Fold these 2 entries.
Entry 1:
Amino acid sequence: MSALEEIIKDPERLFIGESVPAEYLTDSYVADLPSVYGVALPVTHEEVMALVKFANEHDLIILARGAGTGVAGSQVPIHGNELIIDVHLMNKIGELDEETLTLTVEPGVLVGMVHDYVEKKGYFYPPDPASKHSSIGGNVATNAGGLRAVKYGTTRDYVREMTVVLPNGEDMTLGSLNIKSSSGYDLKDLFIGSEGTLGITTQVKLKLLPLPKVSQSILLAFEDVGKATDGALAILASGADPSGVELFEKEALYYAEQHLGYPLKTQVGQAYLLMTLDGNDEKELIARTETVREAAMSDALEIHVLSEDDAVKSWALRDNILIGLMAFTEYEMLDEVVPINKFAELIRYTKELQEKHGLNVINFGHSGDGNVHTVLMKGDLSKEDWLEKRSGLLDDLYQKVSDLGGLPSAEHGIGIVKKKYLERMSADINLDYMRKIKAVFDPDNRLNPGKLF
Ligand SMILES: Cc1cc2nc3c(=O)[nH]c(=O)nc-3n(C[C@H](O)[C@H](O)[C@H](O)COP(=O)(O)OP(=O)(O)OC[C@H]3O[C@@H](n4cnc5c(N)ncnc54)[C@H](O)[C@@H]3O)c2cc1C
């Protein structure tokens, strides 16, 4: 029995060389992945530690993987001698501590499972990426955002404590159940969003909130994206306190309407805001709905306070834009972010780029937090044309994002797909210190090297 088989005794959880399943070696964002040393699927923290030690002894690159839904290439092999440590079978939900309002989970638990589990018990886990099938370990590694970030923040804000295995095989607990800390550097925050380059998460204690008792969705139609952004800014400033403010263009909505087979409730205008208010008191919610109406009245063409049925249908349309698009064309989705008052300028600029580069572009996104999902569509372009036009457009687009004070990624991460743009948009000194931090935790550059920077 080999040393690796001593660690992972179940043959169904270990794949070496040619037996590695194709799903680990293919990715829609990164072409031509190399074969790897192997894939191991641990089910305990101790197995992860032993695997990392094995990789050190055999000079292998280590790559952590959760549900594999990443869209920046950070979970894919690029070297050829990776030991992929896939933690998706570490999927136990542990204690729900009602005194500290925390839930202990293993990293392979899916975020959708967390929502279902806590909501049945009257609690709320706000981070809400559209990929409900992504894992908590992956969400922490990418600081996943989603639809409720405008009011509730991102994954970072809901990690109280986490346990990690470091690149040398030692383990460490980061953070604590204390709500406040002025007790030294916050190492937990350093690991969150580090895309599996500093350690492998094996347990997380998530912060929960009481589940809001009432909610109301509102749909607003606007003449164009500029008006919709003005409307969003007015709503954010009004004190209505929305939990999500999503913006989508009519052009983007088209694909979801085709896919689901029904239209959005309103068809006027070229841009829409779909938003939710939540709270605990019906009367207060009605008053806040009125606040939204007053704030958006001068910009909006129509304002619809949605019934429960219409709300479900409208949110399904929002969630199905990308899935609908898949039936039409190959595409690349971005997740750039700009200060919220620059949202419309950025979207308008993408239309100029559409003309300049001859590549179709649609936009949707989280207008409440300035995060645009610009989608470049291949259509019937040849592969060469697509790659050339895409590259030219991305250069221009990220330059504009930088000029507007934005960042290349709001929630999906840098991986390898956006590496060159992070490099262009960050001061050398920042990247230099990131590299120094990486070297402190991983002097052998063993854990997911070549990603991020
Ligand atoms: C249709 C679709 C919709 C999406 N919508 C959203 C959205 O609304 N918001 C959003 O933020 N993202 C979204 N994403 C992106 C993706 O789901 C997130 O990046 C997610 O957090 C990745 O989780 P995962 O479990 O799939 O991680 P993986 O893809 O497996 O890995 C992603 C990164 O996390 C690291 N990692 C994974 N597990 C661990 C661990 N235990 N310890 C250390 N590092 C680890 C990997 O090394 C890699 O760097 C979407 C993706 C798709 C396909």
Entry 2:
Amino acid sequence: MNPYELPVEDIEKLVEQHGTPIYVVSRQKVVENFRRLDRALPAVTIFYAMKANPHVGILRALHEVGAGFDVASRGEIEAAVAAGANATDDLIFADTVKDPKHIAYAHGIGLDDFTYDNASEITQIARYAPGAKVHLRLAVSNEGSVAHLSKKFGARIDEAVPLLVAAREQGLRPHGVSFHVGSQCLDAQRYVDALDQSRQVFDAASREGINMDQIDIGGGFPVRYLDEDIDIDAMCKTIVDHYHRRFGSDISLVAEPGRNIVGDAAILVTKVISESVREGLNWLYFDDGTYGSFLDVLLYQMQYPMRCNSTRAPKPYVLAGPTCDSIDVFSRDGEGDVCQIELPEMHLDDLLVVGSMGAYTYAESTRFNGFEPPRFVYID
Ligand SMILES: Cc1ncc(COP(=O)(O)O)c(C=O)c1O
């Protein structure tokens, strides 16, 4: 079940037992999300992008049902291996900017699949993981997605063949391309266009004698936060149909979804720890904020569904976190400006329940001012 549907009495019981702030997590929902994507993307091998949420209970649950992991660092590799993953079969190192110490560590334990998008990364991989398999990441359109990753990552199409040739010349084994359409992508056309660009690169590479056999279609699969119109099955069908049109079935596919697997599998429960009226506005202060679970409110103007355990009449509120920084306010509009949010009247000790808090919340939280990230409470 989506834990946002938990009755308020159950949430209050969990708070009595565990305190606040807490993430209330359904492992069953994580597994259900993985299986739904796995079914909708037949013949695609899924490597969960553990940067979305690396908590051990989530990694173990996904490993048990056959997911691999996309890792970005030695820390993530160690966490995945501790959850049961095998470095050679279950891990891909798909970040394009890698610490060379982490490349060497990965190579040393048998991880053999690295992604790159520039010449210096070829040098680093060839030095620290000689002979490794590599994917070339392409910059593709991220239009309409929430997080635009191609601003920082990916080679242009005209750079692709020289970069593939350079990898081969340095003893690496170029075996595919990868792309990322941007996180929280709401338009399947982004994947269609990216597959077309991949086709162009496959054809140009084969003229240079480089015959590749895999496409990594990245992540980007969305989560419903408020009222987004999302049909994952339809999106995946568009991708799979277009893949068959452009590639037959000779080329294998992998994907690195993060957000879609964990986003709606966790809620946050945070408590009112202070309240005030400032310049005529009602402020509520909680035991979690933008230095904890709400960083993406600042970075990407994310907005999450919210409810509370009060049944009083609604009032407009500014919602703030506990730290000493004035940027620690998580009621913000689509432009990122502080705004008021209407909630049933709340006071000290009341609980705010925030939905779809599984992805890029705990993973991005800091320990600023000595506040620890929320604890995990698994309900199944
Ligand atoms: C290399 C890479 N793969 C996969 C992902 C996961 O993307 P998403 O959570 O949008 O599925 C990301 C997100 O930043 C990424 O950088």
